[in-house]
């Protein structure tokens, strides 16, 4: 079995059946041993000892001086972990009384440096907090929706509607396209200088994953693919996706870049990718990304 991708496999028991147990939830919320994962406007909290790798900051409830949207993430060895979103606070530092120096930061800045299980927990907290922030109202009737079941459901507060809204994640396909000895990488204008990566795009309603892979590749580069095979998946809460990774075989080689989507797309030789050093002319995608994983696994073949 492959090693899990970054932000997957948090070692957490999601205790799905406990979410409806209000008494158990209340006990866990009051338990001094429970740990809280603060989220402020999609930023996570990390410890900053100034030395070595950063680490996630998991606080006791009394170290957070305000209320917030609270979501049961799960348990680790019997200890409950909750996300606590305090984005409504204007001065976040003043709402925290952590015992160690801490800092709010974008997970994308520190993700590859964190212990895997910590990165996964922070990603989960960020993703579910984002969902709550954007589903405060019922999408059917427009009335307020309130959180239930430990934060894994929002229900419309109008009894006549009472629609249930469940946390969602947007499926996106991401694919390493190759023709044997070369692979197809593209680049978007907004990326860091020289960075090239695999193609990717959102799955549309009424479409299979394989169809989405083929459609995105032909739309962005004009390349026709077949032999679409699943590789692995990655939670990617930046802001709300799951990346579904594939390898696909190119049937054509003539690239026609859709300039509205990509600045450039090119074939790269296996030998070049194996020997290159990152520079502003060419660099590989982020180390915590499934894109990097798809490329490196293909290079090992
Ligand atoms: Zn409603």
Quickly give the structural class: alpha+beta
In angstroms, what separates the terminal alpha carbons?
Answer: 16 Å
Number of strands: 15
Give, in order, the helices and strands. Answer: HEEEEEEHHEEEEEEHEEEHH
Helix content estimate: 10-25%
**Shape label:** globular
Largest sheet: 6 strands, mixed
Radius of gyration: 22 Å
Task: Indicate the mean pLDDT.
Answer: 95
Which small molecules are bound?
Answer: zinc ion
Strand content: 25-35%
Number of helices: 6
Low-confidence residue ranges = none
Structure explained in plain terms:
There is one protein chain. This protein is an alpha+beta fold. Helix content is 20%, strand content 30%. The chain contains six helices and 15 strands. The chain has helices spanning 22-30, 107-110, 116-133, 209-221, 270-275, 290-299, and strands at residues 35-40, 43-47, 55-56, 69-76, 79-85, 102-105, 145-148, 153-156, 164-165, 170-178, 182-187, 199-202, 225-236, 241-250, 264-269. The strands form three sheets. Strands 1, 2, 3, 4, 5 and 6 form a six-stranded mixed beta sheet that branches. Strands 10, 11, 12, 13, 14 and 15 form a six-stranded mixed beta sheet that branches. The chain has a three-stranded antiparallel beta sheet with strand order 7-8-9, with no helix packed on it. Strand 8 (153-156) and strand 9 form a beta hairpin. The radius of gyration is 22 Å and the shape is globular. The chain binds zinc ion.
């Amino acid at each position: 079995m492959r090693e899990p991708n970054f932000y997957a496999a948090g070692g957490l028991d999601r205790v799905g059946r406990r979410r409806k147990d209000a008494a158990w939830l209340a006990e866990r919320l009051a338990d001094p041993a429970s740990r809280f994962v603060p989220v402020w406007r999609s930023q996570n909290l990390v410890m900053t000892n100034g030395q070595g790798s950063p680490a996630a900051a998991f606080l006791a409830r009394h170290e957070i001086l305000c209320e917030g949207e609270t979501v049961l993430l799960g348990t680790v060895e019997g200890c409950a972990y909750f996300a606590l979103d305090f984005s409504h606070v204007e001065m976040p530092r003043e709402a925290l009384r952590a015992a160690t120096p801490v800092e709010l930061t974008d997970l994308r800045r520190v993700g590859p440096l964190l212990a895997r299980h910590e990165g996964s927990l922070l990603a989960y907290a960020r993703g579910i907090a984002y969902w709550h922030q954007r589903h405060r109202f019922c999408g059917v009737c427009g009335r307020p929706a309130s959180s239930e079941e430990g934060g894994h459901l929002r229900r419309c507060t109008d009894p006549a509607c009472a629609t249930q809204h469940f946390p969602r994640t947007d499926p996106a396909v991401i694919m390493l396209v190759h023709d044997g000895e070369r692979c197809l990488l593209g680049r978007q204008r907004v990326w860091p200088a020289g960075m090239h990566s695999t193609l990717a795009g959102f799955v549309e309603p009424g479409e299979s994953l394989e169809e989405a892979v083929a459609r995105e590749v032909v739309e962005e580069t004009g390349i026709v693919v077949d032999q679409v095979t699943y590789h692995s998946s990655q939670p990617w809460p930046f802001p709300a996706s799951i990346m579904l990774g594939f390898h696909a075989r190119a049937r054509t080689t003539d690239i026609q870049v859709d300039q509205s989507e990509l600045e450039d797309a090119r074939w790269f030789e296996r030998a070049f990718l194996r020997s290159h050093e990152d520079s502003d002319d060419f660099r590989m995608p982020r180390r915590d990304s499934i894109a990097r994983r798809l490329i490196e696994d293909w290079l090992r073949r």
